[in-house]
Protein: 3-deoxy-D-manno-octulosonic acid transferase
Amino acid sequence: MAFLYNIGIQIYNTAIRLAAPFNEKAQLLSRGRGEALRRIRAFQRGEGKLVWFHAASLGEFEQGRPVMEQLRAKEPDTKILLTFFSPSGYEIRKNYAGADYILYLPGDSPKHAALLVKQFRPDAAIFVKYEFWYNYLRELHRHHIPTYLISAIFRREQVFFKSWGKWYRRMLGFFDRLFVQDEESASLLQGIGISRVQVTGDTRFDRVKQIANAAQDIPAVASFCNGLPAVVCGSTWPPDEDILLEYINHTPKAWKWIIAPHEIGENHIQSLLEKCKKKTVRYTQAQGDLSEYEVLIIDCIGLLSSVYRYGQIAYIGGGFGAGIHNTLEAAVYGIPVIFGPRHQKFNEAVTLLREGGGFCIHHAGELQELLDCLTDKNPAIRETAGKKALEYVNSQLGATDTICQTLVSA
Structure:
């Protein structure tokens, strides 16, 4: 199996190089990995403790970030190596001040794994949520380097729990401890003989609380809202926007609407502007008193987590596509969250529904009925749901502290 795995990795790496001239993401990945190898070969380790964090992309980075920052606060002299698999993580966070060294992770080969471990000689390695790279994990294990998986979540349909998944289960055995999000994950792992498991919850809760406590004032958004209630529609995709605009265009309510689309390319923003029949302004073009506008389009990145603080209701996009985006960024402000049907793989969304802090809609008719209820007909339901959402977030805090206690003592 290891031989077949390595052949598969080689084929994938070759495909990335061949696609690079024609695909921007492949080009970034191919070029970034080459640069990473050059930097690794030239690296001089020096003395002192060094901890390696690896995240697949931006979402996993946000889960690992509170652990990195708390570790840095407790051990200011500890160096941190941060690696990414995806360009969507590395390109956005390559200048992150909380890590000393930030690289793409070279392709998972025995040669690359041996090189990275030899050059950096980490005192501990932390993989976030989903990352299972056989050669890197094996090399860390071979050198007796404590290795951890944090904010992990496991489901019965994963390959580890199949009758033919013995080789994949071996990778789980390379971890010294797996910090998992829930009891179901722990039970699944224990059922296949993985006992070094600890239920700590999801570090994203700590991260969103951290973000909310440091949320920035956004004068343009405050001017736009002008004291009126607002619905913040975050990380929306076209299917979300279609049903939202159907409602927005036909409602006479004195509510404000903030749309932060997932795709902020000019063509998409122009399409939104054309479809919206209400008086609309783009954030990047907003000037002066914005109170006369009814819809604000956030056409840049980096603001959404702070924009939610201005809302009384949040609509989270993605539920009519591959899956919903981060519901916790909104729930932490004590407002109810609405999302589409494809949320089953997101524990926090399932729990928000169960606890009464979230609502699922399947079509435009359900959205209309729900928004009519929450905005006008029964605002008490909105207030109660908001309180439930915040209570849920607060009840899940603390994973970062537990994980860091292990890292500091390692």
